[in-house]
Predict the 3D structure of the following.
Amino acid sequence: MTHPSLLEQLRVDLGHEGPISVERFIGRALNDPVHGYYMTRDPFGAAGDFVTAPEISQMFGELIGLWAAGVWNSMGQPRRLLLVELGPGRGTLMQDALRAARIVPEFRAALEVHFVETSPVLQQAQRAAIAQSGVDAVWHERIETVPDGPAIIIANEFFDALPVRHYVRSPAGWCERLVGLAEDGSLTFGMAREPEPYIKAEAETGAVLEIGAIAYQIMLTVAARIRQQGGAALVIDYGHTETMIGETLQAVQNHQFVDPLAHPGDADLTAHVDFAALARAAHAVGAEVHGTVTQHDFLTALGINERAKALRLRADPAHATEIDAALKRLIGQDTQDMGILFKVLAVTQPGMPRPPGFGGDPPP
Ligand code: SAH
């Protein structure tokens, strides 16, 4: 059976319903059950649209596995710990984390792995990735169904994949940005006729305010659970540390930026994470916030240089060059490098010592 493309489907739907919010548009483009970007494909790696840190090097997931073991230790070594990953992609981070965790057998024995993943294709990839680990896992479509208990929750490049809302400053006030149909049948931005009565910030006409309401809501859920049941969350993503006016919605296809409205379902859509908003959500429910720190500072404090050195000793020359290149990609400090663009935030139960990587502790 052939399906109309998502663009065709959206044309029909918008023709019937009229324009939809940017948030709904992104939700359809990413998560439509038939055509959604993540629902139909594995977008990672050189042949895909983009490459994430765990796909660059095994060192990334390994260090996060050891980070989790360190946090478990500060929690008083509970005998049962949920290790939860939000948006695990191919499952590579968890695979590397579980392998590294073998050096702390009591920690590994305490683990119950839970994946929160909406895409059936990626759930399959995750199952395959951890099949050899000997650890059982459970899959969920939403964090709300993860069972109770102390937990360490990991989210790498998850929050940037959540739909955002846009408001556009007009002479009358801030109006929600909408996606509608142009006369030639292409998708186009417009805005709601009536302004939102409760946004009062001053800005020039045409300025855009981007609100990650879904991200905020998920962080409230994560932080409330940590506050009540113990544990920590680790968020790694590109984004900004202050809430500002401006929009960051971007579409990437085959490693190139494309028009966000032109290829719904076939291009990845992301927005920078507003870490200040996530920190406010965590504070609002009484959890403690650590960071942000840059990915460079975080991975350096966790000992990535030492890990790279150890791997290099065992590597042939070609592989050693790869390790150096991966290290540079992960912790490089030029303005466009991941080491600077990516930020790391931790949320913990109140009173827990500062987690590894957030200052204070020298590399192991
Ligand atoms: N953490 C992985 C993948 C990042 S891509 C890595 O670093 O490689 C974003 C991931 O989040 C994908 O696995 C995608 O399917 C998943 N995802 C997107 N929206 C989601 C949602 N609302 N709930 C759960 N998973 C989601």
Remarks:
- The first helix runs from residue 6 to 17.
